[in-house]
Design a protein that fits this description.
This protein has about 375 residues and is an alpha/beta fold.
């Protein structure tokens, strides 16, 4: 009984730490801190925050303002509940508050936030054996509502990453091509499960530049022409500029991917016809089409290329526009969200609403 309680307590503290590294909203951090403290933010939890949110335990790229905001919210909540705020927390908050502006300005990326997304193993016997499957280090925009959407981290990207980690055999040894790759999280997970080739694309140059930086953060080589060293490297990705409006079939002919992926790429009715055109070109390979083979009802066995698109239906009109355009282009779009639900690798990310995401399997009809 005592061992089970200790294990649960250790897991709750682990979730708290990983949520902080993932840049979860302060409200989510406080909710996890309360849970770890059995309903309140205890002195034990406050000491844990100090040990894990400051000093050498925090990457120098972590946004100081974010840490200061969390400490301020913790202190306010403990004081309002007539609890005891440990002196060290007051001191650390004062120190952070006085220097966070200077630190963030030195980084010259005040509109970006460094995040570490940790995917936990789906099977474990105890906390010590619950190993983190993969950690993705990402520079993400904090201006999601100011047009910098390509450098933001979206729920569909998290869902698609969980899908990849849940079904690694689908992607292992396959050539994978992602549309609208954004921060590159999906590419990091594809490399982890052993995709033979990973091609990440985006039509925004600033997003593409940030994506390349993120690949370097994760020790992934960005493939370039005439580089023998990179050709021999297993940890490599291609980051390519791709405009859906301008790309031609001849531009894509050299890729011939086995799997096409996309997360939250149905965002604008104007771009939907261009997206469908690109999907059709990528799914049309050597005259083969993605007809199902093997057992009836098997979502994953196909003869030709297949696309997996994760999306949140924010606007029914946009989604209906995609469905109609896909049907007109003779694309089969099947919702496999329930039948192929991924494991929960991100229990510590409370802001991530996985129930809002739909997963589509798209193939070219004969």
């Amino acid at each position: 009984m005592a061992d089970a309680a200790a294990q649960e307590g250790a897991e709750q503290l682990l979730h708290l730490k990983l949520a902080f590294l993932a840049g979860e909203p302060p409200a989510c951090i406080l909710a996890l801190a309360r849970k770890a403290g059995g309903g309140s933010i205890t002195s034990h939890v406050q000491n844990f925050l100090l040990e894990n949110f400051t000093g050498t335990n925090v990457d120098r790229r972590q946004n100081s303002t974010y840490t200061t905001t969390i400490f301020k919210r913790v202190i306010s909540e403990v004081e309002l509940s007539s609890g005891v705020v440990i002196d060290e927390l007051y001191e650390e908050f004062a120190q952070h508050n006085s220097c966070c502006v200077q630190k963030d300005s030195l980084l010259n990326r005040t509109d970006y936030m460094y995040k570490e997304i940790s995917f936990l193993s789906s099977t474990y016997d105890n906390v010590s054996s619950r190993l983190i499957s993969v950690v993705a280090r990402l520079s993400c925009s904090s201006n999601m509502l100011e047009g910098d959407t390509g450098c933001s981290l979206w729920p569909s990207s998290l869902f698609l990453s969980e899908f990849i980690l849940s079904y690694p055999k689908i992607f292992s040894t396959k050539c994978c091509f992602e549309l609208g790759s954004g921060v590159g999280l999906v590419g990091i997970c594809l490399n982890y499960v052993g995709a033979s080739k990973v091609i990440l694309t985006d039509g925004d140059t600033s997003t593409l530049a940030n994506m390349k930086e993120n690949m370097e953060l994760n020790n992934l080589c960005i493939e370039q022409e005439d580089s023998e060293v990179l050709k021999e490297s297993k940890n490599k990705v291609e980051c390519k500029y791709l405009s859906w409006e301008e790309v031609s079939e001849s531009d894509l002919r050299g890729y011939q991917p086995d799997i096409i992926l996309g997360a939250d790429i149905m965002y604008d009715p104007v771009s939907v016809p261009h997206l469908v055109r690109v999907l059709s070109m990528l799914l049309r390979r050597d005259g083969r089409q993605g007809e199902t083979k093997g057992k009836s009802g098997d979502e994953f066995e196909t003869e030709g290329p297949v696309a997996y698109i994760a999306t949140v239906i924010r606007n029914a009109e946009t989604f209906n526009c995609f469905a109609k355009s896909a049907a007109d282009a003779r694309l089969s779009a099947i919702n496999i969200t329930s039948s192929a639900a991924p494991s929960d690798f991100l229990p510590h990310m409370l802001s991530y609403d996985r129930s809002s995401v739909q997963l589509l399997k798209i193939t070219l009809l004969s």
